[in-house]
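Chapter summary example.
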Amino acid sequence: MQLASDQPHRLISLCLLGSPVRGSGTGNADLIRDKGVRQWAAETMRARLGSTASEAQIKWWTDELMGRTAQASAFGAAAARIDMTLEAGLGRITAPTLIVTTTESGLQSVEAVEQYAKRFGDARVLVLPGDSFHIAAVEPELCAKHTLEFIEAASRLHAAAVTRAAE
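The structure predicted for these 167 residues follows.
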């Protein structure tokens, strides 16, 4: 979102899956600092992936993906999001934007997503069933399908606009 806001001419489309526009406080950074990455992942993964994620998915994300992340990297990423606020720049995002969230995401409500989507130049909100923050991890095929359809449609519109401008 920051790139799309700072350099809107560089994007043909933008897809945001479970992406917040403001920080989440110190909770994740504190847990990573105090308990380490693997323990933080173990304690938070179910809430982040949601109730439909399989135990195998939870274990893989906890042990293989997040658990192997260097503590300094995980802490740095979490700390950078503590007071992140992207709201002021949303109106500068001109690329057609797909925003995907879930009905019960603990990260942000559907209403909050719909409110910030109004600030974009051209945004569409897609609400999928579930309670995952990381919907693309839990429903990769469904998210890929919607994302590819959106990108293809935005690319066709962009190509038509370029053709019209050249005529």
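To summarize the output: Strands lie at 14-17, 97-102, 123-128.
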